[in-house]
Amino acid sequence: MSVLIHRYSGTSFHFKLSARSAFAAPMGYWGGLGRPAPSARRMHTSFRHQKAAVLSSADALGGAAVAGGAPLGENSIVRMVMFGKPGAGKGTLSSRLIAKYDINFLSTGDLLRQHIVEGTEVGKIAKEIVASGGLLPDEIMVQVIAGKLSELQGKPWILDGFPRTLGQGKLLDELLKQTESPLSLVVNLDVSDEIILRRITDRWVHLPSGRVYNMSYNRPKVEGLDDVTGEPLVQRPDDNPETFARRLAAFYTSTSPLLQYYGSAPPGELGHPKLVSLAGSTSDEIWPSLERVVCELGLGLRAVPEDVVREVEKEVGERQLESEPEAHREGNSKSGNEKL
Fold first, then answer.
1. How confident is the model at residue 274 (pLDDT cuts 50, 70, 90)?
2. How many domains does the chain have?
């Protein structure tokens, strides 16, 4: 017999879960953590699918009671974007959220590449522009994410890589306004320039797998060697003070107007998203505040069992989402558009 207590209403629920259908497969994941990167990655993908089985077991509750059993409104759905300087920890913190809660993660870079691979009309246009060395217009990027957002109507999501400029922010608001699903949360990670510079210069990577280590925290078991393969670690060419200074300047130029825009948004037209700035020197310091803000907003979020999430996030999450070079996300172009 298991017990769930809803954190807001205090209501307790007693139910029995089938170990085979809900937990056997996820718990079998642990045997793959020591495997080579491709195998471990497949195991992680399998777990992500199994997460739905775990959550569906809780569906027997008929939905946790919120506000005396009243149905959740649109304002309770997490639709969020996260901003932060290069190296601030957006990948790490997004990874924790999507590992622990039933939140969809949308990467504009991944969506764009999918359009190109599938040969859609948008993909064909994007491929030509990228092949010629051009920058994708904001309107193309909006079309890239529009279809996916329509599929997630009424579901929580985090949008990564867009918007990057004030113009893109306004276009995104127009798109969400058409579907009556405006942003509900804008998070700014407030980490000092000095701390981020130290993080970046202390960062080492295992290139074949994308695993990321840091000499200040998350050190490899053997200095200079990957934990799984024992192969040498290297530093990315752009992990240096000069490149960081350029990326930081680009961030301030493009993102400061965006934060002012969301911070001054009047109620009504833009849905008045909640803008919060979370300060800290590490992702571990910021995480409790981020989780609290998201859970207060998204009363309908469902969590994976804590012991399962803890190991997944520790072993896979932090080193996988942060493996994408931050330089690919910020400051690559004058307009901030995606460039493959």
1. confident
2. 1
Of 207, 230, 302, 307, which is closest to residue 4 (Cα–Cα)?
Answer: 302
Is 184 part of any domain? yes
How are beta strands 274-279 and 185-190 bridged, if at all?
parallel
Domain that holds residue 204: 72-328
pLDDT-wise least confident of 33-42, 70-79, 131-140, 220-229: 33-42
pLDDT at 237: 84
Amino acid at 244: F
- Phi/psi of residue 104, nearest 5 degrees: -85, 140
Residue 52 lies in a domain: no
3-state SS, residue 216 = coil
CATH code: domain of residue 306: 3.40.50.300
Please report whether residue 310 resides in a domain: yes
Neighbours of 31 (CB within 10 A): 9
Q: What is the pLDDT of residue 306?
A: 61
Instruction: Kindly write down the DSSP assignment for every residue of 118-169, as one continuous string.
Output: HT-HHHHHHHHHHHTT----HHHHHHHHHHHHHHTTTS-EEEES---SHHHH
Mean pLDDT of 6-30: 38
Residue 126 lies in a domain: yes
Judge contact between 237 and 324, C-beta under 8 A.
no
Bin 69: left if φ > 0, else alpha if -120 < ψ < 50, else beta.
left
Q: Which two tokens stand for residue 97?
A: 């959220």
CA angle 269-333-88, nearest 5°? 70
What is the mean pLDDT of the segment spanning 183-212?
91
Exposed, middle or buried by CB within 10 Å (0-12, 13-18, 19+), for 249?
A: exposed
Residue 286 or residue 318, greater confidence: 286
pLDDT at 81: 95
User: Does residue 275 have a pLDDT over 70?
Assistant: yes
Instruction: Give the catalytic positions in this structure.
Output: 90, 164, 203, 236, 247
Tell me the C-alpha distance between 87 and 134, whole Å: 26
